[in-house]
Amino acid sequence: MIRLRSSFRIRIENIPVYESLYTIIYTVIAIFLTIDATQFSQLIPKFSLIMKLLKLGTVAVLPVVFTLQRKIGIKSLLFGVLAGCVCLLVAAVNSNKSTINLLLLALIMICGCSLKSNKLLKMYFLSISAILFVCYLFWRVGIFRNEYSIGLNGARHYYIGFTYFSYYHNHFLNAILVYFAIRKKQITLKATAVILLLNLYFYILCDTTAPYLLIYVSVLLLWMLRYVPKIFETKLFYYSVILMPFVCGIVIVLLSAFYNNKNSNLAWLNETLSGRLELGHEAINRYGIPLFGSDVEWRVGADVARKSSNYFYVDSSYLNNIITYGLVITVLMVCGFSLLSRKMYKEKKYVICIVLLVMAVHGFSDPQYFSLKYNPFIVYIGAAYVSTICVPAVQTTKRYNLTSLIKLLGVDHG
C-alpha cells in the first residue's frame, strides 16, 4: 500500500494478480516510452535496442497475462478475437516499422478489457510525476544539457531534460488530468493553486499554449462541477462528451485536406495553429487517407526543428494516427473513447468525462491522444467495448475460467 498525505494523497491497495501484472506491465512501458523522449535515453547505452526488446517482450507476455484472469467472460473473449483479427489484418496489408507499436497498442486494449479499478491510473501518475521531477531537477542543476529552441516570436522554448520543448508541458497536462480523474471531487483549493502556479511556470519556460490553456479549462470545469453539477447532467454535456472525438477528428481532417494558403481565413487559422494545417495538407497529398496506414517517416525533434525546410510532422492526433495506422484503426479507437465517455457518463463519473473531453480537444492540435505514454485511458477502451457488446442472454450469464475456456475452444463445447 502506498500513501501520499496532504491534498495530493493517493492510496494504492492490494489488487488481484491479473490486475497487478497488467498494471506493472503498462506502467513499465509508459515509463520507458517517456524516458525515450528524455536525455536519459542518450545516457543509457543501446537504449533503442532495449526499447525494441521491451516492446517485443511485452507483446509476448500480454496474451499470457490475459489468461490469468480468474474468469474470462465470453464478451471479453469475443472482443479479443475481433480486435486481434483487425490488428493482424492491418499489419498484413501494410507491414511497416509501426507494426510492433500497433500490436502493442492492440494487446494493451485487449488485455485491459476486464480492468475495473483505477489503480493503474495511480501508478501512472506517480511514475510520470517522478520522471518529470527528476528531469526538472537534473536540468536545473546542470546534469542535463540546457537545450532550447527559438520561437518565431523570439522566445526561448526550454526542453527541461526532454528532447523537444513541447514534451514536458504536455506530459504535465496529462499527468494533471489523470490526477483529476483519481481525486474526483476531492480536489482542494490548495491543490488548484499549486497546479495553476506550476502551469504558469512551465508555460513561461516552454511557451506551449495548448496544455497551458487546457489546464485552466479543466480546473474551471471541475469547480463548476462542484458548485453547479446540474450542468453536467444535461443532454448537451452528454452529447458533447461522446461526440467530441468524432467532431475534432473530422474537422481537422477536412481543414487539412482543403487547406489553401490563398484563402485568408484558412491562412490565418494555419498561422494560429503554428502551421499545422499546411503540414497536414502536405501529409494528405503524400499519403492520402489510407485505410491501413502508411510507411511514413516523420522528421521531428530538436535538430530538425532548427531547419524548418526539413521538418515534417503532423501534430494532430487524429490525422497523425490515420496516416500512420490507417483510418480503420483510428475510427475504432475514436469509437472506443466515445463508448468509454458514454460509460463514464452513465455511471455518473463526470470528472472522468471532463478529463476525456479535454483530452479529445487536445488531440485536435497535439499528438498525445492515442499515445500509450501520455494517455493511460487507452487501457479502458477494451472494457468500454466489452460493456457494449451484445450476446445472447444464455451466454451473458456464463463465465469461463482457463480450463473451461480451453474446452470452449476445443471439441467439448456444445
Q: What gap, in angstroms, lies between the N and C termini? A: 45 Å
Rounded average pLDDT: 85
Q: What's the count of strands?
A: 6
Order of helices and strands: EEHHHEHHHEEHHHHHHHHHHHHEH
Order of strands in the sheet with most strands: 1-2
Helix run count: 19
Helix content: 55-70%
Task: Name the beta content range.
Answer: under 5%
Radius of gyration: 22 Å
Structural overview:
The protein has 414 residues and is mainly alpha-helical. It has one domain (14-245, 324-409). The protein has 19 helices and six strands. The chain has helices spanning 17-35, 40-43, 47-66, 74-93, 99-111, 119-141, 165-183, 189-206, 209-227, 235-257, 264-272, 276-287, 302-305, 317-325, 327-346, 350-365, 381-388, 393-396, 402-409, and strands at residues 2-3, 11-12, 72-73, 148-150, 156-158, 399-400. The strands form three sheets. Strands 1-2 form a two-stranded antiparallel sheet. It has a two-stranded antiparallel ribbon with strand order 3-6. It is globular and about 60 Å long. Mean pLDDT is 85; it is low at 1-8, 10-14 and 393-398.
In short:
This protein has 414 residues and is mostly helical. It has one domain (14-245, 324-409). The protein is built from 19 helices and six strands.
Strands, helices and their partners?
Blueprint: E1 2-3, E2 11-12, H1 17-35, H2 40-43, H3 47-66, E3 72-73, H4 74-93, H5 99-111, H6 119-141, E4 148-150, E5 156-158, H7 165-183, H8 189-206, H9 209-227, H10 235-257, H11 264-272, H12 276-287, H13 302-305, H14 317-325, H15 327-346, H16 350-365, H17 381-388, H18 393-396, E6 399-400, H19 402-409
Antiparallel strand pairs: 1-2, 3-6, 4-5
Helix pairs in contact: 1-3, 1-6, 3-5, 4-5, 4-17, 6-7, 7-8, 7-9, 7-16, 8-9, 9-16, 10-12, 10-15, 10-16, 14-15, 15-16, 15-17
